Structures are given as C-alpha cells and as structure tokens.
C-alpha cells in the first residue's frame, strides 16, 4: 500500500511539474482535473517548485472542496482564460415521486457511467435535487446520458450562467475544550478519544483551510475550517467565551 501511495504521489508531482513547465515555456494556461484533498496535499507540498509559473485554485464557487489548479497568470500571459468548469442541475422531472437522494447516491450513479473522478467536482445536494460541478469536457455527455439515480429518473441540464449554490446549512454546536488545539476540537466535535483523534493526524487526514495539518497541537483561529476526512468539516465561528470552570465554550458550524 505504501508503495502504491508513493507511486501515485510521484505521478502527481510529475503532472504538476509538466503543467507548470508547459504553461511557462509556451505562454499558455494549463489545467489539472479536479483535485481531492489528498491531491491538493501533494500540490501544496510541491507549491514552491511550480510557483514560478503562477497558479490559482477554483472549484466553480467559493469554498469548494474539490478544485482545479490553473497554471499561468494574466499579468504575465497578457490574456485571460476561465476555468473549464460547468455547473449542471440534476433534478427529477416529478419531484413529489422522487426518493430522498444523498451525495453518495448521486456520486455512485455518476461512477456507474464510467466517469473519471477527476472530471467531477463538488456535488451540492438540495431537496430532491443537486448541482454538479464538472469539467466542460464531460458536461455534454452527462446531459445526454445521466438519467437515473437509484430508482429515480432525473434530468440533467446546464445551470443558469449566474447560478451559485446556496451556502451549506451547518449544524451549530457549542463545545467545551481546554484550549483551541485542533486535536482537542476534532475529538470533541466528533466524539472521538484523544488516540482516535491523533490517528487522523498520523494518517494525514486533517486539513485546515484546505491545507494539510500535520501538527495536532496547532491552535485554531476564528473563521478557520477543519476537514477531517471520513468525518466531515467544521468551522470555528466568533462565539468563544470562558466558562466558570476555566474552560473555553466554543461555537462551531459542523458540516456533516
């Protein structure tokens, strides 16, 4: 397993170097596919090596989890090229007869079509409908072929040009911890033991504002978002007060 991970890491490193090099030498914009947190981790570890080409990250809307890296800068190249991202609206023709469909349901149906995961970004699920961010290379195929999720027929069409998904509605929690250490908050928010919390750090599954967090004793700041792979993410809000027993009562927005 470790050898497979090392091989995949090397492949991504070579990919980033190649895209940055082509952008710089040919004076063009180059793009990755959508990157998950693990691939973004590899990118940030290599960021210094490829930053000479200039880069930006975007997933189709602010705070997207899965993002595309674009190499090249307008001030250097003299022209602009948008990210090749399309938003598709997935909606049952008759919503009152539709099943309650989850993110996993939509993603599973997409994978059954043989779609490369790198062409798919975030899936934002609403009430019996969803919005999918994808690369423009697969949008037409999906509009023509994506017709069912579980037992529910759906229509797939390009969303309106100015569409932006509604902000996610998190669960508001107040937790009490001894400090703002990230491991303490993860353990409290997800009801984990200290050891289980530390295992997430050892496995490289903790990210703060999209970047890997290797230090479990890192202190969080208001507004920062923690993603614990396999559990979800939460954001530290402004509500922090000290209890009579000297502990911190902290308000967090939890995205399940």
Layout of secondary structure:
Layout: H1 2-26, E1 30-35, H2 37-50, E2 55-58, E3 67-71, H3 74-77, E4 85-91, H4 103-112, E5 120-125, E6 130-135, H5 136-145, E7 148-149, E8 152-153, E9 155-158, E10 171-177, H6 182-189, H7 194-202, E11 206-208, E12 211-212, E13 225-228, E14 232-242, E15 248-255
Antiparallel strand pairs: 1-3, 2-3, 4-6, 4-9, 5-6, 7-8, 10-15, 11-12, 11-13, 13-14, 14-15
Helix pairs in contact: 1-2, 6-7
Q: Explain this structure to me?
A:
This protein is α+β, with helices and mostly antiparallel strands and 256 residues long. The protein has three domains: 2-77, Ribosomal Protein S8, Chain: A, domain 1 (2-Layer Sandwich), CATH 3.30.1370; 85-158, Alpha-Beta Plaits; 171-255, Roll (Structural Genomics Hypothetical 15.5 Kd Protein In mrcA-pckA Intergenic Region, Chain A), CATH 3.10.290. It has seven helices and 15 strands. The chain has a six-stranded antiparallel β-sheet with strand order 10-15-14-13-11-12, sandwiched between helices. A four-stranded antiparallel β-sheet has the order 5-6-4-9, with helices on one face. A hairpin with a 2-residue loop joins β11 and β12 (211-212). α6 crosses α7 (194-202). The radius of gyration is 20 Å and the shape is globular.
Quick take:
By secondary structure, the chain is α+β, with helices and mostly antiparallel strands.
**Order of strands in the sheet with the most strands?**
10-15-14-13-11-12
- CATH class term of the largest domain: Alpha Beta
What is the CATH topology assignment of the largest domain?
Answer: Structural Genomics Hypothetical 15.5 Kd Protein In mrcA-pckA Intergenic Region, Chain A
Sum up the overall morphology in one term. globular
């Amino acid at each position: 397993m470790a050898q497979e991970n090392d091989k995949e890491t090397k492949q991504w490193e070579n990919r980033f170097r190649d895209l940055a090099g082509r952008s710089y030498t040919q004076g063009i914009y180059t793009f990755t596919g959508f990157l998950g947190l693990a691939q973004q981790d590899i990118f940030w570890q290599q960021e210094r090596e490829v930053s000479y080409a200039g880069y930006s990250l975007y997933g189709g809307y602010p705070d997207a989890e899965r993002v595309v890296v674009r190499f090249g800068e307008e001030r250097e190249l003299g022209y602009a090229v948008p990210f090749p991202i399309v938003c598709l609206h997935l909606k049952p023709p008759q919503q009152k007869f539709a099943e309650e469909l989850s993110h996993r349901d939509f993603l599973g149906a997409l994978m059954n079509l043989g779609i490369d995961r790198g062409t798919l970004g975030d899936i934002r699920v609403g009430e019996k409908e969803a919005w999918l961010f994808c690369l423009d290379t697969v949008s037409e195929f999906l509009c023509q072929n994506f017709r069912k999720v579980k037992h529910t027929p759906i229509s797939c069409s390009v969303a309106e040009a100015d569409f932006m998904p509604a902000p996610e509605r998190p669960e508001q929690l107040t937790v009490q911890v001894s400090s703002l250490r990230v491991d303490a908050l993860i353990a409290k928010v997800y009801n984990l033991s200290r050891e289980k919390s530390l295992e997430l750090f050892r496995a490289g599954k903790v990210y703060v504002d999209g970047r890997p967090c290797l230090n479990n004793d890192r202190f969080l700041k208001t507004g920062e978002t923690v993603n614990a792979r396999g559990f979800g993410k939460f954001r530290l809000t402004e509500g922090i007060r000290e209890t009579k027993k000297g502990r911190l009562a902290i308000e967090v927005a939890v995205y399940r």
